Amino acid sequence: MKRRAVAAESARQTGQVWDSLKKAAFVLGSGLFILVAFRNSVTWHLQRFWGASGDFWQTQWGKLHSLFGGHEVALFFLGTMLAPTIAFWSFNAMLMLADATGVPAFITRYRIQRDRNNPVEPAKLWQAVRTVLFNQFCLSAPMVMLMYPIMQWRGNPCGPELPTFHWALLEIAIFGLMEEIMFYYSHRLFHHPALYKHFHKVHHEWTAPIGVVALYAHPVEHVLSNMLPPMLGPILMGSHVATTTLWFCVALVITSISHCGYHLPFLPSPEFHDFHHLKFNQCYGVLGVLDRLHGTDTVFMKTKAYERHTLLLNLTPLSESIPDTPKQGE
After folding, report:
1. Farthest CA pair distance, the chain
2. Using CA atoms, how far apart are residues 319 and 265, in angstroms rounded to an integer?
């Protein structure tokens, strides 16, 4: 009897997983279909706004392509590794200054967990920086070099012609959807008790994250959850290195914003992922689509953090305009 009950429970859970996967495929597939259906009309207007700059960028790419001659490996590495690394550290340099010194106040007044990292411990910050540098140069760099022959097999990643504006826009939308799927499930897998204590616990040493912690992870997690999800889209699409470079830079800056600990004006809200670091078992994804489908945002949706999970369009911190509910006795 007990064996039957276990089998029934296992079948029920399997059914729930498949049901959730089908729902996710339906929602994401429908979104992609709508995007494809309307992309011509929408991007036509965007391309008019873009104006003649397409010719400008093609000219600049032609000059860079000629400068490198036939050394496309170097050109690929420049785009997929050097440019995103510069984008990551340029953005995080400003954040680390605020984390380490508490100035400028323009940034620190937007801190989400106001009693944490005020300022961050120097030894802890330096440990995070060392780990991130190791992950970037000892893991990310070899991975993008292994990516090059695969991209050559898929197409012509360093060809002389840039992709059209609307095609690059469509590709980046597809990259985002693919990253959401891969990151959500790989991230949730690393939260399994058998894996968490060996791998993902490293990343969660920071219950109040800072920007540079976006890449602070165990090497296994960095490869499977930080690198593969954003790499898969360009590989499957056989993308040009220009699109891949733009995508990698955008992905690194966005994940830095998600971890930065500050809900800054006119930038995407980091409340969702900050809550994940605080509570561990909520908000596993990037866009939040799969969290909604799987019900892994139900606790988050009942909090003040959810009310503050919006684009801040003025200079008043949301912690002031939507303050936490006072505790009893306060």
Report:
1. 74
2. 12
